[in-house]
Amino acid sequence: MKKTSLKIIVTTLFLFLALILCVAVDETRAQTRAAYSYGFIDVDIDVLPDSDMEITETINLLYHSGTFYYADRWISMDKVESISNVVVREGDLYYDFNPKVRKWIDERKEKGSAPGGDSYAFVNWFEGNKLWIGWWHPATRGGSRTFTITYTVHGGIRIGDARDQLYWKAIFKDHAVPIGRSTITVHLPEGISNESLAIFSYGVPAERSIKEDNTVQFATDIIPPNEELEIQVLFPHGIVSGAIPAWQIEAERQEAYNADVKPVINLALVFLGVLFVPICGGIWIWRAFRNRGAVSKRGFSAQLVYSPPGDLPPALVGLITRASCGAGELVATIYDLARQGVIEVVEAERKVLFLNTRDVMLIKTKREAQYPFERLVINNLASETGTWLAKQKTRLQGLLREFKIEVEAEAVRR
After folding, report:
1. Greatest CA span in the chain, whole angstroms?
2. Cβ contacts of residue 271 below 8 Å, gap of 6+?
3. Which candidate, 3, 160, 219, 302, has a CA 20 to 30 Å from the CA of 211?
4. Mean pLDDT, rounded, of the chain
5. Are 232 and 261 in contact (CB under 8 A)?
6. Model-level pTM?
């Protein structure tokens, strides 16, 4: 009898614990599931003959849990002159413009209240270099809503000598939840042949196609959170009119500086560092030994002869002279390896998007480096087929830390 009672108690406790575990798992799943997601974001861009763009965004939101009253998004003003004619609607229901919507949204975020009630209203405002569009609607629990936002972009087309360019971030990056399959459609003015078009996309993969009637289309699969899609369409110059926008003038000035002036300055600084650091280091060492004076003779002690090492690599010279090892020593090591014939440094042009830019390629030869820190630089920045230096900029910070450790270790060994 006692054994039967004990068995019943153990079984009951086991079932109770299993029930608690199942409830905990269900709660965890409910908490980790997003409260909403995007069914799709379709974008329609109509390029007008005067180079303006009329853009229509159709945003479908799916609500899984919770209560929703508003939505908002922002548009970068980096490469446009201005944006006007903002309209928000749901089907045939047009939202009223109301400056209070911004305050309603802020209160909803901070306090969880719903000051806008059952209003259908929107507002747009500038904050930094962004145009924000926010809209308020009655309480929504479950189901979906489809919003349509339209606006006109002025000065968003880049005007070229042979080709003009539309470059637009169609799917914004600032979304914490997935977006379903979406379509971006670009309508170009009449007078353009399909053969004269060039289309590209950047970010999430997109299927690109050129349709009839001067139409270009980009189709995506499901877009993960915080991923974006930028589209680029190049078409013959003269199809649209309009002056070169101010942002383009500034961008071309910066591009010309980066292509023509900056490489010369960088090269001059590199050679100055290669020559200046060893010369100053040698002078400092020579003066230090000279000021120390002659070594006194005591008994039959061997006489010490001081002389600066002639084969000291620039990284060790920099460590001695400045008690530190940084980017200057790394650059000096690159050119010292080139001087030794361990690597070849070749300056050439490479194509980035649709622009030509000057860069430096590091090519590994068959000669071996003497020091571990030199081999570290070669293995990370050079190859037998050649490595572009600009493409390695994301690795330079970590390489610089390892380079410093190896140089300091070599100094201790010497």
Report:
1. 108
2. 335
3. 160
4. 83
5. no
6. 0.59
Which residue has tokens 């000291």? 312
CA-to-CA dists, residue 200 to 10, 179, 205, 233, angstroms? 66, 21, 11, 7
Phi and psi angles of residue 38, each rounded to the nearest 5 degrees, phi first:
-100, 125
Q: Which residue has the tokens 């690599």?
A: 313
Q: Which tokens hold the place of 389?
A: 């230096």
The partner residues of 136 in beta bridges, in order of sequence, read 70, 121
Summarize pLDDT for 226-270 with one digit per residue, the tens.
Answer: 999 999 999 999 999 988 999 998 888 887 777 777 777 777 777
Among candidate residues 393, 382, 400, the one with its CA nearest the CA of residue 345: 382
In this structure, which amino acid lies at residue 82? S
Residue type, 215: T
Centre a 10 Å sphere on the Cβ of residue 290 and count the other Cβ atoms it contains: 9
Residues in CB range of 155: below 8 A, 6 or more apart = 51, 80, 81, 82, 242, 245, 246, 247
396 falls in which pLDDT band (50, 70, 90)? confident
* Token output for 175: 């979304």
Instruction: Write the Ramachandran bin of 51: left for phi over 0, alpha for psi from -120 to 50, otherwise beta.
Output: left
CA 80 to chain centre: 20
Give the number of other Cβ atoms within 10 Å of residue 247's Cβ.
16
CA dihedral (86, 210, 217, 197) in degrees, to 10, reads: -50
Query: CA gyration radius for the chain?
Result: 33
CA 265, distance to chain mean position in Å, is 26
Phi/psi at 78 (5° precision): -60, -40
CA gap 201, 169 in Å, rounded: 10
Tokens encoding 184: 């971006």
Residue whose C-alpha is closest to residue 223's, from 43, 411, 15, 30 = 43
Phi then psi for 349, rounded to 5 degrees? -100, 145
Q: Which amino acid is at 149?
A: I
Rounded distance, CA 139 to CA 85, Å?
27
- Domain locations in the chain as residue ranges: 36-244, 248-289+307-413
Phi, psi of 63 (to 5 degrees): -105, 120
Pick the closest to residue 133 from 150, 111, 117 (CA basis).
Answer: 150
- Give pLDDT tens digits for 259-302: 777 777 777 777 667 666 677 777 877 777 777 665 555 544 44
CA–CA separation, 386 and 394 (whole Å): 18
- Name the CATH topology of 36-244: Immunoglobulin-like (2.60.40)
Is 105 within 8 Å of 136 (Cβ atoms)?
yes
